[in-house]
Amino acid sequence: MALSPLGLLLLFLVCWTLLPGPSGEESLSLLGARNHCEGLLQVQYLKQKGPMCADHWDMKAASVTCRQLDCGPVFSSLKYVVRSRELEVPWLNGVHCHGDEASLWECSLGAWEYQSSCECRCVVVMTCSGGTLQQIGLGGGGSPCAGIPEVVNPAGFVLRCELYKEEATVFCTELGCGTALQWSSVYPGMDREDHWQKFVSCQGTESSIFNCKINMNFLEQCDLSTYTEVVCSGHIEARLVGGAHPCTGRLEVRQGLTWGTICDSNLDLTTAHVVCRELRCGVAVSMHGGAHFSQGSGIVWNEAFRCMGNESLLFYCPREPGHQCGHSQDAGLTCSGEKCRLVNGSNSCEGHVEVHVQGTWAPVCATHWDLADATVLCHQLNCGNVVAIPQGGHFGEGEGPIWPDVFHCVGTEPHLLSCPASTLGAPACAQGNMASAICSEEGALRLRGGEDHCSGRVELWHTGSWGTVCDDSWDLADAEVVCRQLGCGQAENALGSAAFSPGSGPIWLDEVGCRGSEETLWDCPAQPWGRGDCTHKEDAGVRCSGPSLVPPPVHKAWTLPETACLILGSLLCIISLFLGAQWCHRKAACMGSVLSETPSEGVYEDIGAVFMGVKDTRAALPGDPVLEEEYDDVG
User: Fold this and answer.
1) In the chain, what is the straight-line distance between the N-terminal and C-terminal CA atoms, in Å?
2) Distance (Å, rounded) from C-alpha 42 to C-alpha 112?
3) 140: which DSSP letter?
């Protein structure tokens, strides 16, 4: 279980960072974190050294401590409930501060006692402004005010936990998201003292989740296969319903837990673009009024969103009072889709046309597909000019439902999704009647010499000839881009040394350095075209999983057991050095060692986190070139 390695980690912390200190002057320090401005509070006072009982600890005492350590204002001060065999050293009890003292020694301090005398069985862990700032948030919920509670530390580790009513209330308030409307409904059990068995326990009035109580005995609540989404009153998200596909339909907006419709007179084109972007549906191509997609039910929101156009979510758009209406004037919207590609051809510049819609690739119907549409697509894909548009079935039957919209390009648009579009009526496009294009190949990509079209030597078409790629720096991230660009699923191997036999012609690219998220191979950093120092014995190759309609999954955050085991392994190395230093010290073989006073780094880095504020961290997309005269207002 996740509790075991982390519990063992904390037990080592007890043994090696809280050894009884020598007699001397008073001192205090924060141990076990990345710097001296965060961590477990250790006090040396009256010839004793140990942690601070958190029974009467408050933000006034924490402020005095941060000031004394020259660490700026206090950010958080949580109460850490220890396990039964942890921190078996005396604890300092009964601290009372007014908040204006220059040091903790000017406050009223109690006596040293063992943990049985500390009512909460908890010690002080705190973070000052000079500490390592960590982020909290709600992930995967459609806006910053809904999702799974998360703490992300500077190393990128993610801790997710179940929150209950009081804790969710504090979390929402800290995020600036209003009150909590939804939280975990599976309540934990009671312990022998009739206390709820929670990993995080709040009263509901704290200013930060990290001013609550943390009980490591119930860490298993943070290592679940599924979590309950927390929803705050400030949550806003959009959806389209009642249309032929997920990117067209009646516009509905959720505020808090309530879905409602929007008056058609309160929807403008700029806001429509933001909705399409939020839904990963490209840009808005037409707005529909008069309940075009049938009337909705429930509330009609009588307010208007006033987006600037560069927002990533409707959540970030300002709002103001709008016109009032009934469901007969429900607004509707049609978006273009997100990305385009050509698949099932001999290279990436020929094949049938597909658009990417909410995580799935869908073929485009051949009805009304013409040379102007194909010209825009070939230019967009860096494939030169259009050569031909074969009729449906030329590149195979394809899979999945056909995208029901048709494009009406002039031929000068920079992107297929910038062209006006309209939805086909009945009868629907016949299966196999898919739009296709053959481009002149400039910028084409293909695989040769493999078992099928999804494995082989990587070849590029440039300035009229096919050439290869050098295997210098060639890795799985580069292969991932190639496989995705060809519609061949995920990369399984990135191969070098002419694994699929040496090619011929120029070696176009060398020292390719993709991150793995690029759309095409020529979006990746590399040496200038044709200026490498390789031979064809170093031609790069790939092996992909095969054709796929679904994009590769996002890499998961590290799980709690993986995180704990990694930290534990590092800590064991530090402990070995520490014991060696102590042995040397006793044998008078080493002088001046200060290891006994130095806490292990990173021990408490997942405990004391600090809210960084609600912020639009998703990169705003550049303005989409859709002019008002290029969309159909089907009112």
Assistant:
1) 59
2) 13
3) E
CA 376 to chain centre: 33
Which two tokens mark 82? 């220890």
Pick the closest to residue 199 from 211, 174, 216 (CA basis): 216
> 6-27 burial by CB neighbour count: b if 16+ within 10 A, else e?
bbebbebbbebbbeebeeeeee
Closest by Cα among 364, 369, 373 to 410: 373
Look over the chain and give the mean of its residue pLDDT values, rounded to a whole number. Answer: 77
pLDDT band at 84 (very low <50, low <70, confident <90, very high): low
Give the residues across from 149 on adjacent strands. 138
Q: Which residues partner with 287 through β-bridges?
A: 333, 633
Q: How far apart are CA 550 and CA 358, in angstroms?
A: 10
- Give the number of other Cβ atoms within 10 Å of residue 579's Cβ: 12
Q: Is 221 exposed, middle or buried (0-12, 13-18, 19+ CB in 10 A)?
A: buried
Token readout for 196 is: 């709820």
CB 125 within 8 A of CB 215: no
- In order of their start, the domains of the chain are 3-128 (3.10.250.10), 135-232 (3.10.250.10), 248-335 (3.10.250.10), 339-439 (3.10.250.10), 455-544 (3.10.250.10)
**What are the b/e assignments for 351-383, b being 16+ CB within 10 Å?**
bbbbbbbeeebbbbbbeebbebbbbbbbbbbbb
Cβ atoms < 10 Å from Cβ of 45: 18
Task: Tell me the pLDDT tens digit for each residue of 477-508.
Answer: 999 999 988 888 899 999 999 999 999 989 98
> What CA–CA distance (Å, rounded) separates 90 from 112?
6
CB of 570 closer than 8 Å to CB of 95: no
pLDDT in tens, 233-262: 999 999 999 886 778 899 999 999 999 999
Q: What is the signed CA dihedral for 599, 605, 607, 609, rounded to 10 degrees? A: 130
User: What's this model's pTM, rounded to 2 decimal places?
Assistant: 0.53
Beta strand segments in 72-209, E: 74-81, 91-92, 112-113, 122-128, 135-143, 146-152, 158-160, 180-182, 200-201
Tokens 């084409």 belong to: 444
Burial of 425 (0-12, 13-18, 19+ CB in 10 A): exposed
Longest dimension (CA), the chain: 92
d(CA 36, CA 222) in angstroms, rounded, equals: 27
Structural contact between residues 152 and 135, judged by C-beta atoms closer than 8 angstroms: yes
User: pLDDT-derived band of residue 594, with 50, 70 and 90 as boundaries?
Assistant: very low
- Cα distances (angstroms) measured from residue 442 to each of 436, 437, 519: 17, 14, 16
Alpha carbon 509 to its chain's center:
32
Q: How far is CA 382 from the centre of its chain?
A: 30
177 φ/ψ angles, rounded to the nearest 5 degrees: -110, 15
Cα(536)–Cα(281) distance, rounded to whole angstroms?
A: 42
CA distance 355 to 341: 7
Cis check for the bond before 561: say yes or no (omega within 30 of 0): no
Nearest to 474 by CA among 500, 507, 496, 444: 496
The model's pLDDT over 422-448, given as tens digits with 9 standing for 90+, comes to 766 545 677 778 889 988 776 678 899
